[in-house]
Structure formats: structure tokens, C-alpha cells
Amino acid sequence: MAKIHEFTVGYCTHIGCMALKGAGFRVCKFPSRVWLLEAGERKWLWDTGYASWFERYTQSGLFQLYRKFTPVWFDPKEALAQQLYAQGLADTDISAIILSHFHADHIAGLRDFPGVPCICSGEGWQQTRTLRGFAALRQAFIPDLIPADFESSLRFIEGFETVALPEALAPFHQGYALPESNGEIILVPLPGHAAGHIGAFVLTDNGWTLLASDAAWSPVSYRELRGPSRLANLVMADPVLYYRTLEQLHQLWQKGQVTIRLCHEGDL
């Protein structure tokens, strides 16, 4: 069965009610989580978290607003590449980096993995790749974080085998099998939060786990169907689809057969 290894690569802070209605004005910490997935002899990274590149490309100009509205704490010693190296892993051990979406806190470390191919939603990349200036900032996308050769080895999930999901994963019914994962990692669209936002069902020794990325920022959201502040709608790709996805997570959680893990589950 597949294995999931969790890493925390920096964090940001925000007032709680922005991420969860009714959470008040207490400043909360939201870790940036990354996962290393193993299936058979293969290893994949799920996102990269923050990196020194984020600090570099938000020091001045328009994108410094990102840091002002969402303060970030990052220690270079906690860079994902450094954490992997400490565990004896090098770039060459990673088959690919799977990008859940293109927000800066998920792609900031791409330049630390030269030569490692990436996997993402083709629809999401097409909607994001040309964004610049304020349009990019509004989508939390910092174009300079994308390496120059990014597209040379890019693969889109839409080109993977489409598979029917087992009844235990309803209301999700269809996904894309990650090649060479023995059917143990299935990528699924989780639309709304960002263009091309995806998650992954991972079959482990303990059953299925859904890496739900940023489909919610607190388990309370999908347990109680309580979303973030309406102000958060301003930075969502599609608020209607976001709440539809949240409803699906709620139904999945009610069944009690799948573990749900979020990228930024913090101290709410």
C-alpha cells in the first residue's frame, strides 16, 4: 500500500474569521504542509510549500502586497529540499512534483528541484500561465516562482487513465490514476478554491486518505459546512464551486471511511 510522509515548510498567519466564519479576530497560524507519497518503487512530492524564492520575489513591487496581507514565516533550514536531504533523499529520487494548484505557498520551492518534472491540472495551468500584475496577485500567483523550463516536462492529469472510484469514496465517483502508482493514488478535481485545484485519494495500510489541499482551511468547515469569511470569496476562483466541493467533503466525512487531510489545517 502507498505511504504518506508529512512535512511542514513555513507558515502564514491570518485572523481566524477569514478562514472560518465565526472564528473571531484571533491571529491564527496556518502551516504550509507538503506530502511525500510512496507507491511501489516510486516517490512523488505533493506541492513544495514556501521557500526563499518566495521572499525574493515579494520583496518589492506589486507582489510585496502578498506578504503584507498574509504575513509569512519561513526558515531556510526548513526548506523542503533540505528536509528531504536530511532523510537521505535527493532530486533524483523524486519521480515528479504534483501541484495541487498554483498559489504561491504551494509552488514557491519549484526552483529548488531543477529537472524534476511536474504534474498538474491542464485546465488550471491554461487559466493561470498568462496571469501577470494585479490579475496574478488576485489569484495568489507569482509568475517568477515558475522555472523557465517548467513546461518542458509538464504532464496534465487530464491525460491520465480515468478510473471509477469505489463506493467508499462517494460522492466522488471518478478520478485520474497516477501512472506507476499501482492504482493506489488517484487524482481528483476539487474545484472552487483555485483554477485547477486538485486533491488525491491515497490507499494506505489504514485505508483511504484524501489529501484535500485547500478545499478547506479547518476540519470544522467540512464537518459543520461552515465556510470562510465572505471576503475570502474575492480570492476564490469560483465560490459556488468551492461550496459544492465543501458539501462533497462533508458527505465523505459523514461516512467515516476516509481520513481527510488539509494543507493548512492550523490552530482554529
User: Which value, in Å, is the CA radius of gyration?
Assistant: 17 Å
Q: Name the helix and strand elements from N-terminus to C-terminus, one letter apiece.
A: EHEEHHEHEHEHHEEEEEEHHE
Structural class: alpha/beta
Number of domains: 1
- CATH superfamily placement: Ribonuclease Z/Hydroxyacylglutathione hydrolase-like
Q: List the strand order in the largest sheet.
A: 4-1-2-3-5-6-7
The CATH topology assignment is Metallo-beta-lactamase, Chain A
Helix count, DSSP H or I runs of 4 or more residues: 9
Q: Could you report the average pLDDT, rounded to the nearest whole number? A: 96
Tell me what the CATH architecture is: 4-Layer Sandwich
The tally of strands reads 13
> Approximately how much helix is present in the residues?
10-25%
Largest sheet entry:
7 strands, mixed
Q: How far is the first residue's CA from the last residue's CA?
A: 32 Å
Overview of the structural elements:
With 268 residues, the chain is an alpha/beta fold. A hairpin with an 8-residue loop joins strand 10 (185-189) and strand 11 (198-204). Helix content is 23%, strand content 25%. The protein has one domain (3-261): Ribonuclease Z/Hydroxyacylglutathione hydrolase-like (Metallo-beta-lactamase, Chain A, 4-Layer Sandwich), CATH 3.60.15.10. The protein is globular. The strands form 2 sheets. The chain has a 7-stranded mixed beta sheet. It has a 6-stranded mixed beta sheet with strand order 8-9-10-11-12-13, with no helix packed on it. The mean pLDDT is 96. It has helices at residues 16-19, 52-56, 64-69, 80-86, 104-107, 122-128, 133-138, 219-224, 239-255; strands spanning 3-15, 27-39, 42-46, 72-73, 96-98, 118-120, 155-156, 162-164, 174-177, 185-189, 198-204, 207-211, 259-261.
